[in-house]
Design a protein that fits this description.
Elements: H1 28-45, H2 54-63, H3 78-83, H4 90-95, H5 108-121, H6 127-132, H7 135-142, H8 145-155, H9 158-168, H10 184-187, E1 207-209, H11 213-217, H12 221-232, E2 237-239, H13 248-253, H14 256-275, E3 279-281, H15 285-298, H16 303-311, E4 312-313, H17 315-324, E5 337-342, H18 345-348, H19 355-361, E6 366-371, H20 388-405, E7 409-412, H21 415-425, H22 434-442
Parallel strand pairs: 1-2, 1-3, 3-4, 5-6, 5-7
Length: 444
């Protein structure tokens, strides 16, 4: 019986391992040929036009070409499309009808990652981008007590920000994170759990927190709130003995060797915790996705990477699994009213469902309005001079939804997205991390 091509998938998308050690991965002709093939499919479809600025950039290049087709676009302009991609993964997981197992085998984010890796290997990378993605180095310096005060003051001082924009290319209007000298690690250094682990569903009942660069050094409060919520529910919590950045910033830069170095530091620590009976989690969705998806696709034959993948949970996924098994307390003391909740891209693409919304919705007197649109932040994209205005356009529909909701609280699982929304609101209201809202509802 003859086979015919079909329009779109009727099956769930699958992901191929990232063949980044194959010399052909960095072959210029092979890369550009694949980009031409994929761009031609995207041009004929165009359903991802609303997701980020990569697709409008591509379609403008096509529409302004002499042929009105991809073959009329100068291949040197392909990298303009690549530069606008920040690997949110939404096109692959929520929009594209041609992902594997479809015969066209289209993986736009990982093609963009391949192009970024090619650029990095060619030395086509700005000093600013090397600095912004070196979160461990920057955080350790900026987190020194006196230095943290100076950095935080400078980040909020107009003339300094103008100088930073001129010298380093960090947009003067971008909201930069605060640095805390009293890190989450310091705050939890004396924490000893009195709870006794009780398995439920897929959870073992005790959990190890991967602190993440951001939660540890920039916003430790939600980390403390997570521990309080878990301990209230009889879930013992420990913090991983040591860690480096998960590698996501370096992945987005295309520096795959740096991702490998981070993996070789973090995975043995986390695998040991799994062997000791711990589940794993982190409060930044990008970090969770790194361990759940990107590292397993880069290192498919590493058993410890796969072990860590299978033990890693989104924090609200974890709590809702236990709720389903009757192991989550519902002794909430405080109503939250209306919550405008932004679902972070890197949480959405984990395919776990809207677990944060489900958790907030079980709190009496709480109405949750979920906003499923990209915030356009990406950790570094929104702070770069050449991309900040695009990021503000991407976040505008989210900001408009928050304004329209007139909610008592707003926020995102991604704290950086929450602050990017804050930057768009400009009304003085600060975002609240959902785990902080849960602690508030418990009154603990």
């Amino acid at each position: 019986m003859a086979t015919t091509s079909r329009e779109g998938n009727l099956e769930a998308p699958t992901r191929h391992a990232l063949d980044w050690n194959n010399p052909d991965f960095y072959n210029e002709k092979s890369l550009y040929d694949e980009m031409e093939r994929v761009f031609d499919i995207c041009h004929g479809c165009r359903r991802c036009v609303s997701l980020c600025h990569s697709f409008p950039t591509l379609f403008d290049l096509v529409d302004e070409s002499s042929t009105f087709e991809v073959d009329g676009v100068d291949k040197q302009d392909y990298m303009k499309v690549v530069d606008q991609c920040y690997l949110c993964d939404l096109c692959y997981m929520t929009k594209c009808p041609y992902t594997p197992p479809h015969e066209w085998n289209l993986d736009f984010p990982h093609l963009m990652l391949r192009a970024k890796a090619f650029k990095f290997k060619q030395g086509d990378v700005k000093t600013r981008d090397r600095i912004l993605t070196s979160t461990d180095t920057v955080g350790s310096l900026a987190g020194i007590p006196v230095v943290a005060q100076v950095v935080n003051a400078a980040n909020n001082f107009g003339p300094t920000r103008k100088a930073l924009e001129a010298v380093l290319g960090v947009h003067a209007d971008a909201k930069l994170p605060r640095y805390e000298s009293n890190t989450l690690r310091k705050r939890l250094s004396s924490h000893k759990s009195k709870a006794v682990a009780e398995p439920a569903g897929r959870t073992k009942g005790k959990i190890a927190l991967f602190a993440t660069c951001y939660t540890n050094r920039n916003e430790p409060g939600p980390g403390e709130d997570f521990v309080a919520v878990c301990e209230h529910n009889g879930i013992p919590v420990v913090i991983a003995e040591k860690e480096r950045c998960c590698g996501m910033p370096k992945l987005e830069l295309g520096n795959l060797e740096a991702v490998k170095e981070a993996k070789e530091f973090n995975i043995p620590v986390l695998a040991k915790l799994v062997d000791e009976g711990y589940d794993l989690t982190g409060l930044v969705p990008s970090c969770v996705l790194m361990f759940k998806q990107e590292l397993p696709l880069m290192f498919p034959n590493d058993p410890d990477v796969q072990k860590v993948k299978n033990a890693f949970f989104d924090p609200f996924e974890y709590l809702m699994i236990r709720h389903k098994e009757g192991k989550l307390k519902t002794d909430f003391k405080n109503e939250l009213g209306k919550v405008a909740y932004h679902a972070a891209c890197h949480q959405r693409v984990q395919n776990i469902g809207p677990k944060t919304r489900e958790m907030l919705s079980i709190i009496p007197g709480t109405e949750v309005e979920i906003i499923e649109r990209c915030s356009g932040h990406d950790g570094t994209y929104a702070v770069k001079k050449e991309f900040h205005e695009f990021s503000m356009k991407i976040v505008k529909p989210v900001v408009d939804r928050v304004k329209k909701a007139e909610a008592a609280h707003y926020g995102s699982d991604c704290a950086m997205a929450g602050h990017h929304i804050e930057n768009g609101l400009k009304d003085g209201r600060a975002p609240s991390h959902p785990i902080s809202l849960v602690r508030k509802a418990y009154g603990i």
